Fold:
Amino acid sequence: MTWFLSAIVVLVLPLASPALAEIKSGSDFLSPELRRQQADETRNPAFFWVEQGRELFSRKPAGEGQACIACHADPQQSLRGTATQYPQVDAGTGKLLNLEGRIEQCRVERQKQPAFGHETPELLSLTAYLASLSRGLPMQVKTDGAATPYYEAGKAFFERRQGQLNLSCQQCHDGLVGQKLRGDTISHGAGTGYPAYRLEWNDVGSLHRRLRACSLGVRATQFDYGAPEYLALELYLADRAKGLPVETPGMRR
Ligand code: HEC
Ligand code: HEC
Structure:
């Protein structure tokens, strides 16, 4: 693999700043078969997580806490489109929250329960369920005002060379789009299908889990789930994906 990546470095270097092509969804780069499987609720395993999330949303927790649905009646309507606006800056704390972060905030502050924790089946299910309510709606995150510094940090991260292989996200996800890498076709890294079921994981995982895989791929620092670095990156990716429809739950190799 290192051999392959070295070949890439040589290939990419001449492309100083690739012209910004139209950003396409990750599923446009899947095999036709996997794309069909993603679209088929009976064959895309991630729909199981969506179902679990739907149930959990209506379940009353132990003790005093209320079910999510007690405060968010008719989620099909009231939370349709929500996922298209994340990550977003929390008005209260000024911090950048992705959808997982917002769910955890409600879980702790409003439902009065302990946080689920990153990559738990509960948080993945609820996130997949809520994101699925925005299926087909265009991404439309805000990058102005309080979001600007986060956007700038995400952009800088995307463009910075890193890791032992000294590669930036941009070199692969702009410069090498459409090229093959270990059986994958490199996409724009739009991230509009997450949480997604990945065959390699044999499981559903968050966007941050995918980002960690890319960081590892270039032998760079893997940040924690929910780390500010990945949140800023997520905002930048979401802005690049502006106008693309939410596809959660996605399926990936
Ligand atoms: C006691 C009432 C209450 C409970 C219980 C509750 N929420 Fe909320 N939730 C709110 C309120 C109020 C807001 C609006 C906060 C704001 O925008 O300042 C909100 C906001 C949200 C948002 C962001 C909506 C947006 O448009 O950005 C999401 C997502 C969310 N809740 C999910 C959940 C989930 C999932 C649960 C269960 C784990 C839950 N909530 C439990 C009251 C509640
Ligand atoms: C050596 C090339 C390479 C580098 C560098 C790289 N990636 Fe990736 N990335 C891939 C490959 C290959 C995939 C899987 C195929 C695809 O969806 O693009 C992928 C997948 C992704 C996906 C999932 C897309 C989807 O729809 O499933 C995202 C998001 C992503 N990368 C973001 C990043 C970010 C952010 C960085 C920088 C921290 C980065 N990548 C660095 C090669 C790379």
Summary: The first strand starts at residue 88 and ends at 89. Confidence is low (pLDDT under 50) at residues 13-19. The chain has two domains: 2-10+18-40+140-252, 46-132.
